[in-house]
Amino acid sequence: MSEVPSSRKTRRPDRAAFIIAPALIAAAAVIWWDVARLATTSTYAPIGPATVPHWVAIGLVILGVWSGFEAWRGDFPKREAVAIGPVVWLVAGLAAQMLLLRPAGFSVATGMLFALTACGFGRRKLWATIPVGIVLSFIVWVIFAKLLQLSLPAGPLEHLFF
Fold first, then answer.
1. What would the pLDDT profile of 69-85 be if each residue is shown by its tens digit?
2. Whole-number Å distance between alpha carbons of 99 and 4
3. pTM of the predicted model, to two decimals?
4. Cα–Cα distance between 162 and 147 in angstroms, integer?
5. Is 6 helix (H, G, I), strand (E, B) or coil?
6. Secondary structure of the chain: what % helix, strand, coil (to 5)?
7. CA-CA distance, 122 to 116, in Å (whole number)?
8. Residue among 81, 144, 136 nearest 113 (CA)
9. Of 8, 35, 44, 124, which is most buried, counting CB atoms within 10 Å of its CB?
10. In this structure, what are the phi and psi dihedrals at residue 29, rounded to the nearest 5 degrees?
11. Letter string b/e over residues 3-14, b meaning 16 or more CB atoms within 10 A of that residue's CB
């Protein structure tokens, strides 16, 4: 007969996971409710616009229930301390994109998101990452806005070329 390791005996239920589990289930409920407003599958195709969101909602419910069981058992590994610096860089990148999207356009706003995210991951050379991010974002804008004819916000840079 095998014995339970002593670290297993002292583990307590994970409170953070008890918060995450219902949050996942709530997100699934919101997705399911939103998808219920879409048209159901058509008569000629079994897959419609609601198919993938339904599967995502089902997956979130499964993950929520699983997280709840794992939280109760205390099987989550011990988490490392949160490094605040990278989180601040990532949030700053998202804020910069939201603030710059209309006035500066997709390429500049997403380029700033790219550069500030790179800073969050340890690349501190903004003078290099901002231009690289803008160029990559401009390429993405050209593919989506011009080739695929999707609507992305255009700014001065995009109007300079198109």
1. 988 887 777 778 888 99
2. 54
3. 0.64
4. 12
5. helix
6. 70, 0, 30
7. 10
8. 136
9. 35
10. -65, -40
11. eeeeeeeeeeeb
Contacts of 94 (CB under 8 A, 6+ apart): 113
**Rounded to an integer, what distance in angstroms lies between the CA atom of residue 157 and that of residue 59?**
40
Residue type, 10: T
| Integer Cα distance of 40 and 46 in angstroms | 10
pLDDT of res. 138? 95
What does the alpha-carbon distance between residue 80 and residue 91 come to, in Å, rounded to a whole number? 20
DSSP letters of 23-53?
HHHHHHHHHHHHHHTS----SS-S--TTHHH
Amino acid (1-letter code) at residue 75 = D
Q: What secondary structure letter does DSSP report for 79?
A: P
Return all residues near 127 (Cβ < 8 A) that are at least 6 apart. none
* pLDDT at residue number 72: 86
Tell me the two tokens of residue 39: 């048209």
Amino acid identity, position 153: P
